[in-house]
UniProtKB/TrEMBL annotation:
Catalytic activity, as annotated: uridine + phosphate = alpha-D-ribose 1-phosphate + uracil; 2'-deoxyuridine + phosphate = 2-deoxy-alpha-D-ribose 1-phosphate + uracil; thymidine + phosphate = 2-deoxy-alpha-D-ribose 1-phosphate + thymine
Domain Pyrimidine nucleoside phosphorylase C-terminal positions: 343-417
GO biological process, one term: pyrimidine nucleoside metabolic process
Protein name: Pyrimidine-nucleoside phosphorylase
Species per Swiss-Prot/TrEMBL record: Keratinibaculum paraultunense
Annotated GO CC locations: cytosol
A single GO molecular function term of this UniProt record: 1,4-alpha-oligoglucan phosphorylase activity
Keywords per UniProt: Glycosyltransferase, Transferase
Family: Belongs to the thymidine/pyrimidine-nucleoside phosphorylase family.
Keyword DNA-binding attributed: no
Role of this protein: Catalyzes phosphorolysis of the pyrimidine nucleosides uridine, thymidine and 2'-deoxyuridine with the formation of the corresponding pyrimidine base and ribose-1-phosphate.
Length: 439
């Protein structure tokens, strides 16, 4: 281990055997934290090349269980978002794609900090079960083309140990370590094609476009190198996606979109992600054909009906989908009103996410308990016209003191002034095997 650390410290390239050695033996507890910490710091300063990063990912995949999905009929697709605020795309995209006849097999995580987790959102539906056996997961995808469940405990255990150590040693930000962490969990689950939604902006891990492009390229290279069809969209997270932030509120919004209503940006992103999944799965030959198929699932309510089926197959109470008013509700709803005339210039997504966290919609630590009913619903977004007295946002809270604290913060977060000179972008670019296309 000493030699491996020294080699990377001096700018050397680690061999496949050396990478396999430290991943396997650290996972088994045979290498102490302080040596892996030293190695990560050496990697942070000297980086890993494409081959090293792929080998690291492969070793992390091989550190635990792999989910064999070969018994699922057709080309199986998966989607991963690098995390944002109000990002409810999985609950809309999955049913849309499944309604087009494409198997959508997704194992998701829980939310931590200001970003929400798909599983937490689904659990705001009464009796919805996210813990499924692999057999149940596969059976559901074969029966209704969709299942969304929690990862088995032993998927990429090396990543869990590595991440905990990186978190306390200031080595989280290295692109190779981030990309291998994300992709090891995705590749352990045997989907045939993956779309990565790489967020960029104030509410994302990547704050600037160049870093987001680098991360997207690194992850696409890993996926392709591993033999999986992989592409990435770079999407805007300078303001929250959609209007709702908070678990039950986001489920209600997802149902609105599936019923043909809901925020335009959230719907449009689901369409764009869906187009790529239909092309990857060979369900459509052109973008135009894919778009028509996806729009028809909303118009005909087949995507909405697919969401009802998903809830039913995972033991949830479908009355909560048919009548979203049954979803958990907060005791108080407080209006945040504008004190200025003008246009919304900026709306920092991370700060809004932190406000939802104060209310109890997220987790400070993995042990924190979530309040499904609380959150924020935005009434005005970037570029919207605002007059004095207009409602900017609605705070859904169960603690009036926390609501008042959040109200003051939201008034500061909304930057109101002259209209922005440039229109905001929803999607910045597309990264595929051989191409980086910036829009």
């Amino acid at each position: 281990m000493y030699n491996i650390i020294k080699k990377k410290r001096d700018g050397g390239e680690l061999s496949t055997e050396e990478i396999n050695y430290f991943v396997e033996n650290y996972t088994k507890g045979k290498i102490p934290d302080y040596q892996i910490s030293a190695l990560f710091m050496a990697i942070y300063f000297n980086h890993m090349n494409k081959r090293e990063t792929l080998d690291l990912t492969r070793a992390m995949v091989n550190s635990g269980d792999k989910v064999d999905l070969s018994s699922i009929k057709g080309i199986k697709v998966d989607k991963h978002s690098t995390g944002g605020v109000g990002d409810t795309t999985t609950l809309i995209l999955g049913p849309m794609v499944a309604a087009c006849g494409v198997p959508f097999a997704k194992m998701s995580g829980r939310g931590l900090g200001h970003t929400g987790g798909t599983l937490d959102k689904l659990e705001s539906i009464k009796d919805f079960k996210v813990e499924l056996s692999i057999e149940e997961f596969i059976r559901n995808v074969n029966n209704i083309n969709i299942s969304i469940c929690s990862q088995t405990a032993n998927i990429a255990p090396a990543d869990k140990k590595f991440y905990a150590l990186r978190d306390v040693t200031a080595t989280v930000e290295d692109i190779s370590l981030i990309a291998s962490s994300i992709m090891s969990k995705k590749l352990a689950i045997g989907s045939d094609a993956i779309i990565l939604d790489v967020k960029v902006g104030s509410g994302a891990f990547m704050k600037n476009l160049d870093d987001a492009i680098n991360l997207g390229k690194e992850m696409v290279d890993i996926g392709i190198g591993y033999g999986r069809e992989t592409i990435a969209l770079i999407t805007n997270m300078d303001e929250p996606l959609g209007n709702a932030i908070g678990n039950a509120l986001e489920v209600k919004e997802a149902i609105d979109v599936l019923r043909g209503n809901g925020p335009k940006d959230l719907y449009e992103l689901c369409i764009q992600l869906g187009i790529r999944l239909l092309l990857l799965s060979k369900r459509a030959k052109t973008e135009e054909e894919a778009k028509i198929l996806l729009e028809e699932t909303i118009r005909s309510k087949t995507a909405y009906n697919k969401f009802v089926e998903l809830v039913k197959y995972q033991y949830g109470d479908i009355d909560y989908v048919k009548n979203p008013e049954l979803l958990p509700k907060s005791d108080f709803v407080i209006e945040v009103k504008s004190e200025k005339d003008g246009y919304v210039k900026a709306l920092n997504a991370e700060e809004i996410g932190k406000c939802a966290l104060i209310l109890g919609a997220g987790r400070e630590t993995m042990e924190s308990k979530i309040d499904f009913s609380v959150g924020i619903v935005l009434n005005k977004k970037v570029d919207d016209k605002v007059n004095v007295g207009d409602v900017l946002a609605y705070i859904h809270a169960n603690d009036i003191n926390k609501a008042k604290e959040v109200e003051a913060k939201i008034k500061e977060i909304y930057i109101i002034g002259e209209k922005n000179k440039e229109n905001k972008k929803l999607i910045y670019g597309l990264i595929s095997k051989d191409n980086i296309e910036i829009y």
